Amino acid sequence: MINFEEELKNFQPSYEIHEVEDSIYNRDLTDLTDIMQEMMKEAKINSNHLR
């Protein structure tokens, strides 16, 4: 039978995982909310020009 407590003590995260985490957290990513806000601004500007 597997002793999970012992296995957890021996666990070491992969170095590549830390590299990926750092690169993700250090980037300023555009998310869906940012895109939608920009689209709403453009739609408002375009509708004002049509009037």
How many whole angstroms does the radius of gyration measure?
23 Å
- Uncertain stretches: none
| Series of secondary-structure elements, N-terminal to C-terminal | HHH
Look at the structure and give the mean pLDDT.
85
Principal-axes geometry comes out as: rod-shaped
What share of the residues lie within helices?
Answer: over 70%
SS-based class: mainly alpha
Distance between the termini: 75 Å
Secondary structure: number of strands:
0
Specify the number of helices: 3
Describe the biggest sheet? none
Strand coverage percent: under 5%
Structure description:
The chain has 51 residues and is mainly alpha-helical. Helices cover 73% and strands 0% of the residues. The chain has helices spanning 4-10, 15-25, 32-50. The chain is rod-shaped. It starts with a helix and ends with a helix. 0% of the residues are buried. The model has no long low-confidence stretch (mean pLDDT 85).
